[in-house]
Structure formats: structure tokens, C-alpha cells
Amino acid sequence: MSDGVSSGFASFGQTLELGVLAFVHLVRDVVTLRHPWRDTVEQAWFVVTVTVVPAVLVSIPFGIIVSVQVGSLTDQIGATSIAGAAGGLGVIRQGAPIVAALLLGGAAGAAVAADLGARTIREEIDALRTMGIDPVRRLVVPRLAAFIVIAPLLCILIIFMGLAAGYAINVGFQSGTPGSYISSFASFASVGDLIVALVKAEIFGIIVVVVACDRGLNAAHGPRGVANAVNAAVVLGVVSAFAVNVVVTQLVAMFMPQRLG
């Protein structure tokens, strides 16, 4: 039991150290104009290709489900005029960042862990160190920068598609009116809600990529070790993002309470 706890804390410290080191390199290289932007663009495009289509396919039914459930509830209590606000806030504040975390962890994070894990077991990482090249600076930093750029954009896409689906369901099938939906949404939602959602997505993206890189760089025991690294990256990344979401949500509720506009 104690060995497992010690191992867990050691793994956490190792991941935290990798994240801090990657951020230090990222800031330093950007300031000194030495950041490999070409690698960052390639990684960002890869993240886009593996997450955009799933984001659309997930956000549309998610927006429909939220709209149906909220519309049914508001209809029972005679508050159909706030259906747009309730559904929209659910998508913005919680749904979109969580869906972004799931997609970044399950698709992009798994691919990053698999790529770095394969490089590790082929001893490419050791070869880089032998040549005096820092693998964190060469491999982790471009991926970190790519996730930082793509995570909020992915969140915006999910918000747009989720709200559009909810609007279509409310107006087309729940006897809602466009004006009522939009006015109620504008009364409750604010720019602060969007900012919170984007900050959440940014944090989740950083957590996912750092965990994935750490698991990949520490893969061992051949192909089986790579598979274990990928599984660990997905599970740890998503669970960590959910845990952080609880903390961030509580802080937002304390310092940014919901007000009717």
C-alpha cells in the first residue's frame, strides 16, 4: 500500500517537473525567437485532424440531449421562456470544456503517448540525449504549444455546434420561439462564462498533453509498454482534467456567482 502511494506521488512529481520544464523552454524559446514553429504547426494540424470531426459528431447529440432534457423540465414547471438560457449555460460552462478534454485525451493525447512511446522503445530518445539534444525541448514543447493553441478553438467549435443543435431542437420541436430562446440566453450568459470555458479547456489541454508526453517518454518493455503508456495517458489525463474541473467549478461558483442579467 505504502509503495503504491509513494509510486503515485513520485509519478505525479515527475509529470509536474516535466510540465514546468516544458513551459520554461517554451517561454524561453518564444522570447529568443528559437521556437520550432514548423513543428508546432504540424502538431497543431495533427490535433485538428483527429479531434474536429469527433467534436462535431459529439457536440450535436450532446446539445440535443441537453435541450430535450432542459426543455422537458422547464415545460413541467412552466418556465419554458428560460429553456435557452438553461441549456446554453449547461453547454458553455460544463459540457464544452468536458467534451474538449475527452477528445483531447482520448484522441490526440493517446496519439502523442503512442508516438513518444514508440520513439522511446526504439531508443530514439536516448539517441537524442547522446547527441546533446534535449528531448523535452525538441519533442514535448512543440506538442505543448500545439495543444495550447488548439484547445480553446476546439472548445469554441463545441460550444457553437452544441448551441446550434439546442436552438434547432427548441425552436423546431419544442414550440419555442427564436426571440425567446436568444433573449433568455442573453439574460443569463455572459462573456465571463465563455472566458471560464476557454480557460478550462486550456487547462485541460495542458494537463492532457503533459501527462501523455510523460507516459510516452517513460514507456518500457517493448510494444506492450507502449500500449500501457497509451492507456495510462488517456485514463490519467481525463481523470486529472475532471478532478481539476471540480476545483475550478467550485472556485467559479464562489467568486463568479450566477446572476440574472
UniProtKB/TrEMBL annotation:
InterPro entries: Permease_MalE. The keyword Nucleus does not apply. Keywords: Membrane, Transmembrane, Transmembrane helix. The keyword Transmembrane helix applies. The chain crosses the membrane at residues 44-66, 98-118, 139-169, 181-212, 233-256. PANTHER family: ABC TRANSPORTER PERMEASE PROTEIN-RELATED, PROTEIN TRIGALACTOSYLDIACYLGLYCEROL 1, CHLOROPLASTIC. This is ABC transporter permease.
